Amino acid sequence: MEIPYKIYLSEEELPRQWYNVRADMKTKPAPLLNPGTGQPVTLEEMSQIFCTELARQELDNDTPYIDIPKEILDFYRMYRPSPLVRAYFLEKALGTPAKIYYKFEGNNTSGSHKLNSAIAQAYYAKQQGLKGVTTEPGAGQWGTALSMACAYFDLDCRVFMVKCSYEQKPFRREVMRTYGANVTPSPSETTEVGRKILAEFPGTTGSLGCAISEAVEAAVSTEGYRYVLGSVLSQVLLHQSVIGLETMAACDKYGIVPDVIIGCAGGGSNLGGLISPFMGRKLRGEADYQIVAVEPASCPSLTRGRYAYDFCDTGKVCPLAKMYTLGSGFIPSPNHAGGLRYHGMSSVLSELYDEGLMEARSVEQTAVFEAATQFARIEGTLPAPESSHAIRAAIDEALRCKETGEEKTILFGLTGTGYFDMVAYQKFNDGQMSDYIPTDDELAAGFDKLPKV
Ligand SMILES: *Cc1c(COP(=O)(O)O)cnc(C)c1O
């Protein structure tokens, strides 16, 4: 069968259920622990931080398929299915015998896959009768996605944005405000922790840890609010499985069998979502795939981190998770511009990696932006820097195939567009981008601060 340039599923072929890969794992991810007691968290404890249904999903290691509520399916129809693209132009330009496919998640205003989980989290918050949610937007895509999701369900969305990003990323900020979010530069006068930091450090431009602490304080001190996270958690991987399920349905329909599946890995949600159903087949012994996580050499949690219990958030309020981590205090060097700066990795992916069921590679950021630029010029789409880690690895794999003559099928996740990352591209275009790789000593300082459990 001739493979079209873009494969779209029809509405009837869209997944109606998410797939929970934990159900097929023989060794389950280690349980989340209450940081106070050191005991596995209960549903009741989890429900104080997360919506009850999301807490239930977080703790569910056994149910393989979970129905996607109709309201979420309706919203998914606005921007799904996302296309599975055969990168004919890239294959030709590289002169490789390999076949390259990518699943493109950037076709929505928030610009990335994060909307897949944002809409689910907003739905369950609404269902529970909550008034709103609080968060910090990370690099901005999560805040944007959550604003869109909250607008759809008429929920209040309070975003604490690190003050320097608030000032330096006016476009992200204004997209969030256009969708109705209340965006506060952090530290702010609106929380106790914010006021304390401002008193101590007047004029500070803020930090991620502080923004998280403010978002959490605002959630727990305001009736009817919860704090939400856009990656790392198993519930987020579950929602993101829609990426993998659509990909698998498209592959099966056209007889495409990927040999290598590649994804960038920050907290692990897009990669986890893309690979889940494929990993399920692998775990059940039905098929085998080479699965590769790609991370920045400047924030190498899988390739150089420890497999240990750590805080999921720099604010140290969420439960402890066992994961590959660089320590919750780890901050990548300031000249790191390529995203994926999270210190740890999803506990599901960490366990799969520890068992040797997937691999990890790290890549340096100038090589990532070279791949991003090459991809933009050949395939047309301007990729997000995060996604470009996967592009780098896919191109490297295709070039290896050119040397060996192997006709491998390579599949990678193109998680988003780079429109809001032009400052990073500018650095690259001006030749100002450098590669920084942390030394063993620098990493050891982070490992020393891991909580003792
Ligand atoms: C947030 C983000 C990532 C990384 O997060 P994961 O949870 O690891 O998927 C990758 N690409 C884009 C475009 C993002 O916005």
Apparent shape: globular
Helicity, in percent? 40-55%
| SS summary, helix count | 18
What's the Cα radius of gyration? 21 Å
How would you describe this protein?
By secondary structure, the protein is an alpha/beta fold. The chain has two domains: 6-10 and 80-111 and 233-447, Rossmann fold (3-Layer(aba) Sandwich); 15-69 and 113-227, Rossmann fold (3-Layer(aba) Sandwich), CATH 3.40.50.1100. It has helices spanning 43-49, 52-59, 70-79, 88-94, 115-127, 141-152, 163-168, 170-178, 192-200, 208-221, 234-254, 269-283, 301-304, 347-354, 365-379, 385-404, 422-429, 440-448, and strands at 6-7, 17-19, 65-67, 84-86, 99-104, 132-135, 156-162, 182-186, 225-227, 260-264, 290-296, 306-311, 320-325, 359-363, 409-414. The strands form four sheets. A seven-stranded mixed sheet has the order 1-4-5-15-10-11-14, sandwiched between helices. Helix 3 packs antiparallel against helix 5, helix 5 packs across helix 6 (141-152) and helix 15 packs across helix 16. The termini are far apart. The model has no long low-confidence stretch (mean pLDDT 94). Pyridoxal-5'-phosphate binds at residues 112, 114, 141, 231, 264-270, 340, 384, 386-387, 415-416.
